[in-house]
Amino acid sequence: MILPIVAYGTPVLKKEAKNITQDYPELDQFISNMWETMYEANGVGLAAPQVGVGIRLFVVDATPFAEDEELSEQEKEQLRGFKKVFINPELEESGEEWAFNEGCLSIPEVREDIYRQEKIHITYFDENLKEHQETFTGLPARVIQHEYDHIEGILFTDKLSPLKKRLIKGKLNNIAKGNIQVDYKMRFPLASKKR
Question: Which stretches of 131-181 are DSSP H helices?
Fold first, then answer.
């Protein structure tokens, strides 16, 4: 089932999400809905708070980046089939920061260069509640950091300079009010009608 993605301004996006337990109700169905919602919106990652659920869970499929002609073959190989579920993750970042132009399904039509660290070490549970400890670099690390921020109540726009924030304030207000055209299902916090 495709879930509505909540837009910028929705309170759940600014709250730290809660860990889930092994008996979380209908977890398999929820994860399936997350994948379906993400693909419908042409995303490469989606966190539970983005569909209005304040739990520490996100899904990532960075495979579309493997088509980027500017990447090396090694980078493309790293991205092919990079599809994972992250439950109750804990993240450590390291390395140099580098900029990359990011967007977000909850903040459509806004893209900005964001600095993130190049390497992460993450401990998480997969969809079968099996624990993993892994290290990622490059684009996989970036996508994971973006989604991890969502479960921490942080949006990529929070990482912008005060000047950049002022420059996009009007766009953000329009998103919150639903004054935007998107080709996927969204819920707007300040809109008078649902779309």
Answer: 138-151, 162-177
Query: Among all chains, which residue has been given the structure tokens 């089939």?
Result: 81
Q: What is the pLDDT of residues 51-97, one digit of tens each?
A: 999 999 999 998 887 777 777 787 777 788 889 999 999 999 888 99
Number of domains composing the chain: 1
- Is residue 48 within 8 A of residue 57, CB to CB? The reply is yes
Residue 77: closest CA among 66, 88, 85: 66
The range of the structural domain enclosing residue 179 comes to 5-187
Examine residue 124 and state whether it is found in any structural domain, yes or no.
yes
Q: Which residues have C-beta within 8 Å of that of residue 93, sequence separation ≥ 6?
A: 116, 117, 119, 120, 145
Q: What is the pLDDT of residues 84-98, one digit of tens each?
A: 999 999 999 888 999
d(CA 116, CA 27): 30
Cα end-to-end span (Å), the chain? 16
Active site residues: 147
CA distance 27 to 194: 26
Domain assignment of residue 10, yes or no:
yes
Measured distance CA(64)–CA(43) in Å, rounded? 9
